[in-house]
């Protein structure tokens, strides 16, 4: 079972993401590590602005729900991949903001560069605004297992998270508070990049 405090925290983050228009409709998904065998993740098709603890379910690291009748997010395997690869990760957040979606479609390369922003220091290992960071972009794929395979070689260097083209961003951190802070930092950077392109 999902611990109540974990479920309530994820529901609260979902409402915050909804208030920022980062998870329109039932888009996006949120998760947190429960233990060495399972994670908590949002149910499929639930509006993130109206999440309750009952909408957070337990799945194995292979994406199988603890209760067979419960349906996890369609992208559960992308969350599971991160928890399996990086034991230090405690939470993963995925949103579909306008800035992320537009920039991914308007960028022909496989990454978005960032440099000179103070907010960059929110990401792991960053100590100065002067560093050059890169947000990986991968093409969208409805075959999630295949998408995970495409992502795998790029994950070790993905300090900022990653962006799925025409879709949205994934960020992660050791805990939910830091994951939310990194998502907010990344969305700020994406909004700045979109604003600069519009001039």
How does this structure look, described?
The protein has helices at 4-19, 76-85, 98-106, 144-151, 176-197; strands spanning 29-33, 38-42, 56-60, 91-95, 111-115, 132-138, 162-164, 168-173. It is an alpha+beta fold and 199 residues long. The chain has a single domain (4-197), classed as 3-Layer(aba) Sandwich (L-fuculose-1-phosphate Aldolase). Strands 3-2-1-4-8-7-6-5 form an eight-stranded mixed sheet, sandwiched between helices. Helix 3 (98-106) crosses helix 5. The chain starts with a helix and ends with a helix. The model has no long low-confidence stretch (mean pLDDT 95).
Please provide a brief summary of the model:
The protein is an alpha+beta fold and 199 residues long. The chain has a single domain (4-197), classed as Class II aldolase/adducin N-terminal domain (L-fuculose-1-phosphate Aldolase), CATH 3.40.225.10.
């Amino acid at each position: 079972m999902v611990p109540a405090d974990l479920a309530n925290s994820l529901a609260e983050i979902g409402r915050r993401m909804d208030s920022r228009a980062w998870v329109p409709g039932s888009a996006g998904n949120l998760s947190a590590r429960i233990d060495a065998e399972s994670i908590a993740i949002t149910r499929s098709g639930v509006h993130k602005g109206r999440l309750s603890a009952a909408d957070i379910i337990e799945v194995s690291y292979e994406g199988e729900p603890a209760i067979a009748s419960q349906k996890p997010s369609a992208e559960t395997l992308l969350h599971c991949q991160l928890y399996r690869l990086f034991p230090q990760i405690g939470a993963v957040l995925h949103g579909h903001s306008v800035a992320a979606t537009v920039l991914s479609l308007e960028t022909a390369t496989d990454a978005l560069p960032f440099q000179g922003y103070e907010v960059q220091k929110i990401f792991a290992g960053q100590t100065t605004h002067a560093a050059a960071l890169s947000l990986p972009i991968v093409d969208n794929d409805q075959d999630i297992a295949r998408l995970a395979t495409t992502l795998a070689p790029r994950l070790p260097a993905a300090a900022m998270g990653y962006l799925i083209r025409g879709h949205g961003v994934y960020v992660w951190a050791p805990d939910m508070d830091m994951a939310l802070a990194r998502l907010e930092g990344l969305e700020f950077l994406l909004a700045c990049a979109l604003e600069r392109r519009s001039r």
